[in-house]
Amino acid sequence: xxxxxxxxxxxxxxxxxxxxAPLTRCRADNPGRVPxxxxxxxxxxxxxxxxxxxxxxxxxxxxxxxxxTPGLYSDEQAEGWKKVTTAVHGAGGRIFAQLWHVGSIxxxxxxxxxxxxxxxxxxxxxxxxxxxxxxxxxxPKPMTEEDINQTISDFKNAAVRAIKSGFxxxxxxxxxxxxxxxxxxxxxxxxxxxxxxxxxxxxxxYFQALDAIHSVLSSEQIGTRLNPMYHGRAGITLDQESLxxxxxxxxxxxxxxxxxxxLSRPFFPVDSPLLIDNVPxxxxxxxxxxxxxxxxxxxxxxxxxxxxxxxxxxxxxRPFIGNPDLPERIRNGISWVEANTATFYSQGAEGYTTxxxxxx
Length: 360
Ligand SMILES: Cc1cc2nc3c(=O)[nH]c(=O)nc-3n(C[C@H](O)[C@H](O)[C@H](O)COP(=O)(O)O)c2cc1C
Fold this sequence. Notes:
The protein is of the alpha/beta class. It has helices at residues 37-45, 75-90, 145-164, 179-184, 199-202, 204-214, 242-253, 279-284, 299-307, 318-322, 326-332; strands spanning 7-9, 12-14, 18-20, 51-58, 95-100, 117-118, 127-130, 133-136, 141-142, 169-173, 222-226, 260-264, 291-294, 313-316. Flavin mononucleotide is lined by residues 21-24, 55-56, 98, 173, 175-176, 225, 264, 267, 294-297, 316-319, 344.
């Protein structure tokens, strides 16, 4: 099967094209948001993936919007991640860190009463689980140019820390309605300065962050994630500008020679006449580099996407939760376990490191 064949990504040869998607699991349950030994074990179990992309990892305290998610803004966190990357490399795997800022998907409870940051003061109107209980989101503070510059350096510093922690590279989390996506969308970006209005302006912050990261990492150590058809959650909906905006971004990314572009197709129902149904095929026509695709793939549909020439690798999220040895299950035709959603974001080993490998 093509999905089990090796593939070159940046300067790495991946042993297969079965990629583990970034999955927030909320197990960094300590005040410093430091990766734990349990997390190292979880990732080690999944080292058979061609590449693991870590759970979303915040670049600064201001980037936080969930309980118990890890960071990469302190030396203590970097030490914790070292245990993870050592465990994955020891088991023959590769791992990138997904770098994250949630923007408005947060609450003042995470920020000592201060407002979360975003492009504009558009309240995503969603419930947020804060350390003090379940609350409703608020209208965020529109970022000043100083806030934007600070956040760009936070991404750059986190990228440097990621490499020092032993990661093979980083993925910019520019999808799923978080900070960069809030700048891309005309629904959440109402700015009239150089960061709002035209597509060049709405993507300026993202490309500045990418350039800053590129000034300290090689292009082969950088990936980025986009979800062009994201619709109906966290205040972002598809509009006439969405598709042209993502076409513009993907086209411009060609100049960077990145390790990969990671593209999600919708993984929850999208009710919009603006939905295009074949996201990988559409963007394959634009993007020249390694294209990784994600979103509700199984073994056969993943293989079919590769054979159709629409992608170079396939990224699996939920299947990797219940099936730590997913590539081996594909190889041996073993059925997949459906993971228990009740333990996706809970604490402890149950539903985290307790799923056995079917193969050894
Ligand atoms: C429990 C859970 C946590 C997730 N955490 C992240 C995350 O940290 N970063 C991210 O970009 N996407 C995250 N996602 C989205 C997944 O990476 C993936 O895009 C989605 O699950 C669709 O792929 P799948 O159908 O193979 O599961 C998460 C999804 C789930 C179910």
